[in-house]
Amino acid sequence: MRARDVPVPSILLILFALSVVVTQAPFFRARRLISDAGGGRATACTKDAATCGCDYSDGKWVRSRSTDAMPYGEDCPFLDPGFRCMQNGRNDSSFRHWRWQPRRGSCHLPKFNATDMLERSRNGRIVFVGDSIGRNQWESMLCMLAASTPAGSRIYEQFGKPLSRHKGYLSMVFADYNLSVEYYRAPMLVMVDRLPPASDGAIKRAIRLDALPWHAARWAGADVLILNTGHWWNLHKTIKSGNYFTVGDRFNMTTNIKEAFRRSLQTVKDWALTNARLSKSSYIFFRSYSPSHYGNETWDTGGSCVEQWDPLTLITSESDWHEHLWINTMISSAAQRMRRRHGMNKDAVFLNITYMTGMRGDGHPSRHREPETPSDAPEDCSHWCLPGVPDTWNQMMYGHLVSMGFDIRSIKR
User: Does any domain span residue 36?
Assistant: First the structure.
């Protein structure tokens, strides 16, 4: 049939169908990465932003107005040297000048109000548990809050530990608010034991899938608890490094990593459901996977992100998403099962930052690592420059907390 022989209604129908495909392609791609990765739903649909049709995880990066001030600077005393990208030689600040805009017009992501967050958190504890990217987010929160404290306010480490410490935990106290903002290093969330060298040296550590780290007893007293994991759940960090999975005292040398990850999340879920010290007023966030951006190669074979300058406008290929899709699916499922905990009136929120973060290959330290890093060291395309992308994660978390009515001042202890 020639084009001029096609009935007008058919032509209009075809044009309409094409317009839907073209205009909605980024949306459906986003939803596929969000909803499928979230077990069929993006975030907790309780009395929070999601109930109102607001999905913070689905949107786009837009350039900030020049009048928008950064929440803090690299002179913040709580930043790791490796996250101070400008001080380490990066000569552009473009990565700082983007803000996240949720896609739906009715969905407003509130600006992070540090003074309000400090007041709402007065006499409380905000606890971050996870890997070094979780520490990235913790340092971001510290700096965002500290920037709004009154001049002369005292902020100190509760136990006198140096901030350079990367094992165990750190607890920063905002004295004027009687608030502690804490970080607990637990890259796999479950316990990892170093073992005496075996005769053949094959087994170096036991990843105990049925036990939490020794400092988990301190997590339970948190008013806001932010959990993250994922980057250590791969062959390189486990089996190839001599780290084998155990349940009880029995090693399983052939455990599938995905099954081990599922078992570890079950341990976290069971802890949340049964721990008597987990307050009825606690707010739990399970943050999704933060994508790395090693172009062409892996982190240890020359992978690079140094030439990435601006955010992507949309994700054009899903070939690189499979690894964290299964991780996100399991994390979201664990968060969903933690909801409506026995006697508790708040839900566990799946804080989905994967899609928005996947667009930000421009925000990593790359070659601009901490001082004295060898010139031939791999680039850092996993962690984030600060100020930078993790500030938006904390902004999203703040938006959820406000919408859920978080305010420790109103809680009767």
Answer: no
Mean pLDDT for each 10-residue chunk of the chain (413 residues)? 41 39 33 35 40 76 78 96 95 91 82 96 97 98 96 94 94 98 98 75 89 95 95 90 90 89 96 81 92 79 81 62 82 86 66 94 93 87 96 96 90 54
Catalytic residue ranges: 132, 380, 383
226-262: pLDDT as tens digits: 999 999 999 889 988 889 999 998 888 888 999 999 9
Query: Whole-model pTM?
Result: 0.86
pLDDT in tens, 154-204: 999 999 999 999 999 999 999 999 999 999 999 999 999 988 766 467 888
Any domain includes 128: yes
Residue 216 domain boundaries: 48-410
Task: List the CATH number of the domain containing 358.
Answer: 3.40.50
Q: Is residue 25 part of a domain?
A: no
Residue 228 lies in a domain: yes
How far apart are the C-alpha atoms of 243 and 207, rounded to whole Å? 6
For the chain, what is the domain count? 1
